[in-house]
Amino acid sequence: GANSMWGGRFAGGVDAIMEAINASIGFDKRLYAQDIAGSRAHAAMLAAQGIITEADQQAIDAGLAQVKAEIEAGTFQFSTALEDIHMNVEARLKQIIGEPAGRLHTARSRNDQVAVDFRLWVRDQADAAIEGIDKLMRAFLAQAEAGADWVMPGFTHLQTAQPVTWGHHMLAYVEMLGRDKSRFQDARKRMNESPLGAAALAGTSFPIDRHATARALGFDRPTANSLDSVSDRDFALEFLGAASICAMHLSRFAEELVIWSSAQFRFVKLSDAFTTGSSIMPQKKNPDAAELIRAKLARILGATVALFTVMKGLALTYSKDMQEDKEQVFDAADNLMLGLAAMEGMVKDMTANRDSLAAAAASGFSTATDLADWLVRELNLPFRDAHHVTGSLVARAEAKGCDLPDLTLDEMQSEHPGITPAVYDVLGVDNSVRSRVSYGGTAPDNVRAQVARWKEILG
Ligand code: ARG
């Protein structure tokens, strides 16, 4: 038979394939709480404006409360024929309260309804992301504080570059995550406008109060243009953009953990709680969680690209293409939250191997730059000449199979006669990191100051 929501114009029902491609209830049932909250706010406003009676509003409100309870109890019968969460809820409401249910959709369309539901859902997820990032930042901060002066190699091209401190490396992620958090906060502010009352696309002739529904749902204000209200999915795209950048950061640290936990590096030990064994190789302790976090960006970025591609070229206003927004965002949000939580667990649990870090920091001629800087400072060499002298010394050490501090003073002086025993001070990694006191540099004192700054910011 014809659909009860618009059956007036239709004589027959739809093909089964049409029903399958059209239905979104399989996934948009996740919006049930937002849908019901939006409807209750709408009904309260309709009554306050004298558009429906108080009695009808009370019946609607009680009926919606019952629908919500049924969904949460798992007794609600979802129907694919009813397409989506909006019509499933309304149809059940009609079964429960009868005629007044039909008055709920006055001055509203599914277009503004889905827009408000989805904004409310994405807003909650932005809050969840902010919270998840905050917790992860605290985990990194604790690592930074514990190891403010532990030396480790700093890398470029994954080649030993200069010694840095463990705390400095941990704080690099705190900075990244701080920006990630602010991106979600920023997106949240922009998305926090209510599209409810834009109706199908043009607004309505009923004397509605959009400011009241916006307030009731925790929005800062109603959206200002009805066409934009029902066709805008920027809020979802911004969420996905922020999620992609954050997931990219998680993926980078995940990669570092994979490298660092290897037998060749032994920089960190991951906890049993976040690793797995092998069914054949008894020695194995695999960093699976890190690997999965590293991979999560693939689907989060995939969702971002998918939604951009859905939205591009859509003439205003609503097109059914936009129903494809939800699964992408649901999947991206779920995986971001999971990635954040797993990374928090790993960072909390991991133990830095100070000895391996220190040994690695001292190898690979990591203090060559300190030596060149010393030649500039003490012997007044132009930096380019100092670089050349140091390069020759590195070549000598390499040929001899030793590190820079193992070269004799004679060997040093054969590359430059002005070199004195004082040079050995700057060849030690501890002195090297202690000397990097420029603002933002790796010196332990800087790290401690930045830890204090972040503690204050995070409260
Ligand atoms: N299920 C639809 C969606 O997710 C709801 C909006 C339907 N609007 C319409 N005009 N068919 O986008």
TrEMBL record:
Residues 8-302 form the Fumarate lyase N-terminal domain. It catalyses: 2-(N(omega)-L-arginino)succinate = fumarate + L-arginine. Residues 365-433 form the Argininosuccinate lyase C-terminal domain. Coiled coil: none annotated. The keyword Magnesium does not apply. One of its GO terms (cellular component) is cytosol. Pathway: Amino-acid biosynthesis; L-arginine biosynthesis; L-arginine from L-ornithine and carbamoyl phosphate: step 3/3. The keyword Amino-acid biosynthesis applies. GO terms for molecular function: argininosuccinate lyase activity. Its EC number is 4.3.2.1. It comes from the Bacteria. Gene3D superfamilies: Fumarase/aspartase (C-terminal domain), Fumarase/aspartase (Central domain), Fumarase/aspartase (N-terminal domain). It is found in: Cytoplasm. Keywords: Amino-acid biosynthesis, Arginine biosynthesis, Cytoplasm, Lyase. GO terms for biological process: L-arginine biosynthetic process via ornithine. Belongs to the lyase 1 family. Argininosuccinate lyase subfamily. This is Argininosuccinate lyase.
